Amino acid sequence: MLIKGIVLGLAIAAPVGPIGLLCIQSTLKGGFRNGIITGLGAATADALYALGAMMGLTGLLTIIGKTSYLQIIGALFLLYVAWKTRLRKRKPLKAIGLPSNLWRCYFTTFLLTLSNPMTILSFATMFAGLGLTQADLGKGLLLVIGVFLGSMLWWICLSSLFALVAQKLDPSWLRRIDLCSALLLFFFAVSILWAPLKAFARLGSV
To answer: TM segments (predicted)?
Structure first.
């Protein structure tokens, strides 16, 4: 089960999205440790959602209400991050070191990952496919630990790669990467906003 959990964690974390871009940005800005802490926030949220799916907490989504509000909050925060990235002045490579606030790196991706509650439904579907039930507590916990380890494995690899890249690129290229990242974060935010806003518009026209 541990190996299956690691594979699931990799499958959830590996697709390039806003969290991956933030990890890359953090690594380029503050180095390897910065990227690892950023990835740790996402891995923690993934593990919490996996734990929730194992305990059958998908029904909480109906208690909490529409997930659209969480998606909108997450998208607006992504827009803010994109704007800050676009305006950020790139420091010389010699100035790249440990981040001033590791907690901010951690909680940024932790909260952004939690703002996508569809993740718990993905885990619930995967767990059902593996034939797990709430009674399989031991196997389920092994799977959750595996999800965390698999997710962290991906962030370690990603941070290592871009920590090396940062040392080989001159500041002009890093500024271009900042611009591309800001644009991609903007488009991710717009795509996340599109579905809930369309749903609200449909409700308003009824």
So the answer is: 6-24, 36-57, 63-83, 103-128, 140-165, 177-197
The residue behind tokens 């026209």 is 205
Q: Mind listing the pLDDT tens digit for each residue in 92-144?
A: 444 444 445 788 889 988 988 887 766 766 776 666 666 655 556 677 788 88
Can you give the residue ranges of every domain in the chain? 2-204
Backbone CA torsion sign across 192, 75, 81, 121: negative
Q: Which residues contact 135 (CB under 8 A, 6 or more apart)?
A: none
Residue recorded with tokens 């092994």:
142
pTM metric for this prediction:
0.70
CA-CA distance, 58 to 143, in Å (whole number)?
17
Q: How many Å separate Cα 184 from the centre of its chain? A: 14
